[in-house]
Design goal:
Length: 114
């Protein structure tokens, strides 16, 4: 089992959700996050000094999948998350081993709980 965590541009969320659906991945968690990555954060002058003063808004996706769905899910996110501008800021995907999953309602564990 794998946990896929992706930080993407908010404008690409609908395209990523559609691409995941095409890869037969329908369960995901989405949250608004802020951070600073490779893209240059907005700057403003404060008392004559310039520097980063605010974080960049992104969307964080968390998707737990069985092994067979990991590759297609990552490919779908990478493809649909790309803005096409060739600039930093499209995001990042982390793939982690998932030790266990427990469905609270039924008590199922492991791959069956996903």
């Amino acid at each position: 089992m794998k946990m896929i965590v992706a930080i993407i541009d908010p404008g690409r969320l609908e395209a990523v959700k559609e691409a995941l659906g095409e890869a037969e991945v329908y369960r995901l968690t989405v949250g608004d996050v802020q951070g600073i990555g490779e893209e240059e954060p907005p700057t403003e002058g404060i008392h004559g000094m310039k520097g980063p003063v605010r974080l960049v808004r992104k969307v964080k996706l968390e998707v737990a999948v069985n092994e067979a769905f990991a590759g297609p899910a990552v490919a779908a996110i990478a493809r649909a998350g790309r803005t096409g501008g060739g600039r930093p800021g499209d995001g990042v995907i982390f793939v982690q081993e998932l030790e266990d999953v427990i469905r609270i309602r039924t008590g199922e564990r492991g791959p069956e709980a996903i």
